């Protein structure tokens, strides 16, 4: 059901989140319907002149910054037909210049969207991310402490997380090219609903493998629990995944070195029954994933 209580949850300290959709039970890949169209891209605005300036500043701080293409969340809804997600395309440059703008400009973009399109999200990038609530075979949830090498939220704990990548299914890797893809691509070049659905679910498995060093064959098929947004309206799909190995074995694998091991500097396990009470400092996305899991468990 769509959560009626759509206000930001503050039951766990720190950054707020809102549930866009909290399912009664988690769903398999085959149960998700996908719509992919240019009408789900963001609407341009007069502020877009600032974008290049913001991007130049970002590049001067970190020359390796890349305008990677991402899926843009138009909407996600549960109806009589099941769960449907509607996606366009965006990129990191659009994300920095909209969702990450300073507070006053950000609020302005949201208000402009409401006025011009009756949609507070119309002018936002809303790049879609993913996160896993990963349970070990000894019933512990796995969290990683974000290292000082990551751009945001270092020192906070999260589950394995990242973004589905449009470039894995034939969309240009660069955001500014991806945004024009609906106009430049022939009908048969657009990824199919199946391909998109696979990428949405497989991306979370890839992130777990890359960040923890657990082999894919030791992970269950991801189930979609919910979709949330943070205080800047950035959306994440929240998945449930179970590992067939225990926390001790995972710790050994993690210490051997994961491909994206630099993103975290510590592993933490929390027993399922302690998820409500743990004092670990979590990101907004992780709080939402825990909330979704506990709600579906009736916890």
Strand content: 25-35%
| Largest sheet geometry | 5 strands, mixed
Count of DSSP strands: 11
- Report the helical percentage: 25-40%
Order of helices and strands: EEHEEHHEEEEHHHEEHEH
**CA-CA gap between termini:** 17 Å
Mean pLDDT metric: 92
* Structure classification: alpha+beta
Going across the biggest sheet, name each strand in turn: 1-9-10-5-8
Outline:
The chain is built from eight helices and eleven strands.
Write up this protein.
The chain has 299 residues and is of the alpha+beta class. It is built from eight helices and eleven strands. A five-stranded mixed sheet has the order 1-9-10-5-8, sandwiched between helices. A hairpin with a 2-residue loop joins strand 3 and strand 4. The longest helix has 20 residues, at 193-212. Residues 1-13 have low confidence and may be disordered.
Q: What order do the helices and strands come in, and which of them pair?
A:
Blueprint: E1 17-27, E2 32-36, H1 49-61, E3 69-79, E4 82-91, H2 92-96, H3 103-117, E5 129-135, E6 140-146, E7 157-158, E8 161-162, H4 175-179, H5 181-184, H6 193-212, E9 223-230, E10 235-242, H7 247-256, E11 264-271, H8 284-297
Parallel strand pairs: 2-4, 5-10
Antiparallel strand pairs: 1-9, 3-4, 5-8, 6-7, 6-11, 9-10
């Amino acid at each position: 059901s769509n959560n009626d209580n759509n206000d930001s949850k503050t039951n766990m300290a720190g950054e707020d989140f809102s549930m866009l959709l909290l399912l009664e039970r988690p769903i398999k890949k085959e149960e998700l319907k996908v719509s992919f169209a240019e009408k789900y891209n963001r609407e341009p605005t007069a502020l877009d002149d600032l974008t290049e300036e913001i991007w130049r500043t970002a590049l001067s701080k970190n020359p390796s910054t890349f305008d990677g293409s991402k899926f843009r969340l138009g909407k996600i809804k549960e109806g009589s037909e099941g769960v449907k997600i509607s996606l366009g395309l965006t990129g990191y440059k659009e994300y920095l210049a909209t969702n990450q703008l300073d507070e006053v400009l950000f609020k302005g973009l949201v208000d402009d969207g409401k006025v011009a399109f009756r949609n507070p999200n119309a002018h936002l990038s809303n790049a879609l991310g993913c996160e896993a609530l990963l349970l070990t075979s000894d019933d512990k949830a796995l969290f990683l402490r974000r290292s000082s090498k990551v751009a945001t939220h270092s020192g906070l704990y999260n589950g394995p997380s990242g973004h589905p990548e449009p470039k894995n299914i034939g969309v240009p890797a660069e955001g500014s090219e991806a945004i024009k893809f609906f106009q430049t691509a022939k009908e048969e070049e657009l990824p199919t609903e199946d391909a998109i659905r696979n990428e949405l679910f497989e991306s979370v498995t890839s992130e777990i493998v890359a960040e923890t060093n657990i082999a894919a064959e030791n992970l269950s098929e991801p189930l979609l629990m919910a979709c949330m947004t943070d205080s800047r309206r950035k959306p994440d799909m929240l998945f449930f995944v179970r590992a067939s190995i225990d926390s001790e074995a995972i710790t050994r694998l993690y210490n051997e070195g994961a491909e994206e091991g630099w993103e975290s500097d510590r592993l933490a396990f929390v027993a399922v029954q302690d998820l409500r009470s743990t004092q670990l400092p979590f990101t907004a996305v992780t709080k939402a994933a825990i909330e979704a899991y506990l709600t579906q468990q009736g916890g």
